[in-house]
Each structure stands twice: as C-alpha cells, then as structure tokens.
Amino acid sequence: ISKKLRIVCISDTHNAAPGQGFVLPKGDILIHAGDLTNQGSLSELQKAVSWISKADFAVKIVIAGNHDLSLDPNYALKHSTGWAVVPADSDVEACRKLVADGDFVYLQHSAAVVCLPEHNVSLRVFGSPYSPDRGKQNWAFQYSDADAYTMWNDIPPDIDLLITHTPAFGCCDTSAHWTEGGCEGLKRALVSSRPQLHVCGHCHEGRGACVVRWEDAEGECAKTAWEDPGAGNKKMSLLDLTGKAGAALE
C-alpha cells in the first residue's frame, strides 16, 4: 500500500440515506454490511441503490441482510407468526437486477478482488448476507445452528477483508433481541481465515470495534474492546488505526 486507506463501514441503515439520520464521512472504500431496507421492497431498494451508487468512493462493497427479503433466492414463509411479507415475483426480479447493475460490488456469499490503483493495492474480499435463524421470524438469508460450520467453511483462506451481516460470537454481538447475538461457527471460521478486517452488522447494540490477536496455531489469543464514543447516541463511531487523531489502536 503506497498510502493510507480510509474505510467507511456502515450497516443496518433500514431505508435511511445520507442526510436522513447520518452523514457519510469521506474515504476510499465504502462498505455496507447489510439491511439496506426494512422489507426488501422494490421502492426501498431503488432508494438504497441510488444513494450508494452516487456515493463518492473509489470502491463500494455491499451485502444484503435479513431484512432484504427480495434478494434471497430461497426466501419462504416458514412460520405462521412474525414477519410475513411476500415480495411480488416481478419485484423480486427487478430488485435483483438493481443490485447487480448498481455502481458497487455486490457480494452474496461470494468473493471478489477490488483494486485501488492510486494506493497500489488489491484486496481479496468475501461477503455474505447470512445470519443465524434465532426465533420464529420469516427473515431472509437464515441458517440453522447445525449448518453454521458448513456455511462458513466457504470463506476462502487467503482473504484480506471479510464482510458478513452477522457478527461472530463474542465480538460486536451485543443484542437487545438475542441472548447470543453472534455466531460460534463464524468465530471458528475466523480462526482459519484470519482476515485483516472483518466488518459486520445485524446487532445494532453491538456497534463499535474490537481488535483480535491470534496465536500461531490455537486461534484467538487476546481481544481488545474499543470504547466507542458514539455508543448510546447518534454520534459517528470513528476508529483511527493510524494514530493521526490520537494514539493508534494497536
């Protein structure tokens, strides 16, 4: 890398756009870690795709989340209670074309290489919209606990950047809705893949960051939580890894 990269990470905007509850800081890479909408309707996705496509970043990477129903090719009503929205077939086709044609890299449990020539760097990225099925809700992109380890075995071993809608267990997974917000299977997969950066969403109360150090063979060695000045309010969470605005997070 010839100069510093600034990565702006957001998730769970649920139909909000810049100027409607948040402001996008400047950066080189924009990452949206899912839940662009509330229910994945065509009008909702048109709004989300429009503002993300117009955002001024060299690279933009987007995944879906459990609320983006129309983007899940296997979506079905599994429960008689809870969320019960069924996107129209015509809208589903239009929604999937929208994200495929958007001015960003859309990943759906898939990998890509993104290039930033001005920084003389290429990054290997894997992105996935899936999250654990925790309760009787008809969400999109769900998997059972029994399938968790198989699901995350799909993460390539040599990636630089991992984007998942769900957090891993024990890191940024505080939730008002679930006792265990994160996924143990994903946590184990991280021991093998060890990306330089893992970006997630889903658990709103878990916003922030933590730094994980790995042992050579045994996996997680130490985890350092970051005290988020924006927690509990609407301030932006700004984490500086360079030390330019204070002591760097090592």
UniProtKB/TrEMBL annotation:
<protein>
    <recommendedName>
        <fullName>Calcineurin-like phosphoesterase domain-containing protein</fullName>
    </recommendedName>
</protein>
<dbReference type="GO" id="GO:0016787">
    <property type="term" value="F:hydrolase activity"/>
</dbReference>
<dbReference type="Pfam" id="PF00149">
    <property type="entry name" value="Metallophos"/>
</dbReference>
<feature type="domain" description="Calcineurin-like phosphoesterase">
    <location>
        <begin position="5"/>
        <end position="205"/>
    </location>
</feature>
<dbReference type="InterPro" id="IPR029052">
    <property type="entry name" value="Metallo-depent_PP-like"/>
</dbReference>
<dbReference type="InterPro" id="IPR051693">
    <property type="entry name" value="UPF0046_metallophosphoest"/>
</dbReference>
<dbReference type="InterPro" id="IPR004843">
    <property type="entry name" value="Calcineurin-like_PHP"/>
</dbReference>
